[in-house]
């Protein structure tokens, strides 16, 4: 397993440790989880912006009920 070292001020370390304690995790695990949640949010936002741009180019929508009927699921 690879390791990454980050430098924190004393105040930042205290915040990280308090956050980890609230989450009932080790500091390393809490920081790892927080990082990957932030990364996932960034990718979700990127995908949302791409979907919105695509919808803006072709703003046709279909009602759920109409789609269900079209596929014989209603």
Structure description:
- This protein has 74 residues and is mainly α.
- It is built from 3 helices and no strands.
- The longest helix is centred in the middle third of the chain and has 31 residues, at 27-57.
Structural class by SSE content: mainly alpha
Helix content: over 70%
Number of strands: 0
Mean pLDDT: 96
> What count of helical segments does DSSP give?
3
H and E order: HHH
DSSP strand (E) fraction? Answer: under 5%
Kindly summarize this structure in a few lines.
The protein has 3 helices and no strands. The chain is mostly helical and 74 residues long.
Task: Please name the defining characteristics of this protein.
elongated
Fold topology:
Layout: H1 10-23, H2 27-57, H3 64-70
Helix pairs in contact: 1-2
């Amino acid at each position: 397993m690879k390791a990454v070292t980050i430098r924190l001020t004393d105040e930042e370390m205290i915040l990280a440790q308090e956050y980890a304690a609230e989450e009932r995790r080790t500091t390393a695990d809490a920081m790892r989880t927080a990082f990957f949640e932030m990364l996932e949010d960034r990718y979700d936002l990127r995908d949302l912006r791409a979907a919105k741009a695509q919808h803006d180019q072709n703003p046709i929508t279909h009602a759920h009920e109409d789609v269900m009927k079209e596929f014989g699921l209603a």
